[in-house]
Amino acid sequence: MKKKDLLLLVSLLMLPFWLASQVSFRSAPEMGRHSERALENVSVAASDIYDAGEINLIQFTLTFSSPDFEYADGLEMTFPEGVIPLEEGTTSLGGVNLNVPVVGQTISWGDFDEPSGFGDLTPGSYNFTVALDITPGISGDIIFDYTLYGDHWGSPPHIVSGTGIIPEELEEAPVFIVPFTENFDDIPVGLMPEWWSRETNGIAWRVATNVGANSPPNSIATYYNATNPKNDWFFTPGIELTEGVSYDLSFYVRAPGWAGIGESLAVKWGDGPSSGQMTGGTLYENTDMQFATFTNVKVSFVAPSSGVFFFGWHAFSIADLDFIAIDDIDIRETP
Q: Residues 6 or more apart from 7 whose CB is under 8 A from it?
């Protein structure tokens, strides 16, 4: 073989390795090796108070994360004596059906007798309702037990148990004033600041370190899914504004996109911390964000009335792109 032919052959053999070196890698939530999947930050919280002597429809929120996307097969909840879960009025959990019949104090969703290896519940938050027949004379906070069963992908823990409460009285959320700032640096990775909330179709926003920060170490981020588009919200707590006053909303966003396709993000406001209450309008929207580094976004608005308002960030990109990270949120009167 001639020397030039040998060099051509070597070059062709090396081409796949050179191409691979030019491809960047997408970020997933605080992930390690694929053998380290596990369930983390598991909670089941009630958002309603109860009335003794009646059948109560109590809304709960299941939240969990995973360092490398272990899914969950199902959830089991056990209530104390005098608190009876009922089939009628109880909803499914993220599309996972309730197991019937319901017997005694225990209620469950999903098939977790044998690990599936590919659970139906992806990391995130799920709202569901349980009908509870609460006998007369019950008082004080009702403490219940729960167990979340993972699909056993990789290393433990695959089964996480804990306790939650159904309050007799709800703690009233505080109202914040401007200037309002949040840099997420004092919040544990995987969680949300107190009084903030979120909605998701799969991978919820959470405090992160693995995608960088405008002011290190933390930002808040949501991540890609190979098949599901983003439909992920997070909301501030209530902030008091004054009619006719001009305000500036500023934040930093990093969203590299993928293969030349940009991410989509909108910021809206309204009278409550849910997507359905974001009726005040759109303050910012970008459907082609390709920000390799943290980039400042600043918008001004005027409060239409005096009262308490909530602000929501909505990621709505197509499937299989990359992460969106937000940092250093600031809301204050326009100078």
A: none
